[in-house]
């Protein structure tokens, strides 16, 4: 079955016999048992729920894994994965991480005795020197947020295999429509389902997918024990969102390409970071390991003042956190997603007071460019 069809028909199980086209929302906390010691397969919604299971089955097939778990947020998913580790363990992670992951690692995981080294994983040669006897895992984002650094996933998987490290990849930015890390050697894929998968800026969700049965069993145990499973209604919203994932992402990517090229020609724009530009350092690797570049752009303007003018002047594009939805959103990484990252570290990565991040939606690209053109002109006065 092709990916586009999977997104709509990826779950074969039927959960009722009315012929309903849309999966029912099983809004129940618990399930009655047919007899002593018997179960319908469903006992309690924290553990399993048919609507959530429908979604999880689709995700499993989209990422080509053996199991997927749907969480109440991307951060709940990452927090659950961190429960695989014990005090004394060491993890190497990309140094341009989503701000929430950075905060989890450095304020919570650290308290639990787990230590981290952050490194630019786009340069594979920097990883091996950091591996110690207690290193257990690599945590990769590619492309990264907001600087769009690209890590060679097959290359990093080879390092992980050689040193018997667990390879975890946050695949939020490209989704399995454009990139399948499990096929390239990752053990675990993580998502913020809030972004492209949900796609409508209306639901918070997260996923963990794995291709290893033993790992899946461990994660299922953590899942039911820590209790951050996605609610039935939110599961249904994700099922609905995923049906249109391919056409949304195609349009978002197409729009992003046009906008990125347009931004490159504007005098007041000093740098444009978009993986789909031939000049982007990760362009060739992206072509090799992914089937698309996605819809995320970050760009640096000429001054802090211009950055503020743009954020306050946009109307169609909205100044808001988050990404991946049908509505275009612009954010100020320095204050929003990366507000908790130490200033020095942030500046060194180029996340300065002139950097803006644009999540391109599915509006008419002409309207989006007209708006950007207008705000840029207004800031001249
Ligand atoms: C948003 C995001 C997360 C966190 O997900 P939530 O659903 O907001 O909890 C994790 N990783 C990346 C790359 C994200 O963009």
TrEMBL record:
Cofactor(s) this protein cannot do without: pyridoxal 5'-phosphate
Protein name stated in the entry: PLP-dependent aspartate aminotransferase family protein
UniProt entry keywords in alphabetical sequence: Aminotransferase, Pyridoxal phosphate, Transferase
Gene Ontology molecular function terms on file: transaminase activity
Keyword Disulfide bond set for record: no
Stored InterPro entries: Cys/Met-Metab_PyrdxlP-dep_enz, Cys_met_metab_PP, PyrdxlP-dep_Trfase, PyrdxlP-dep_Trfase_major, PyrdxlP-dep_Trfase_small
Similarity field: Belongs to the trans-sulfuration enzymes family.
SUPFAM superfamilies in the record: PLP-dependent transferases
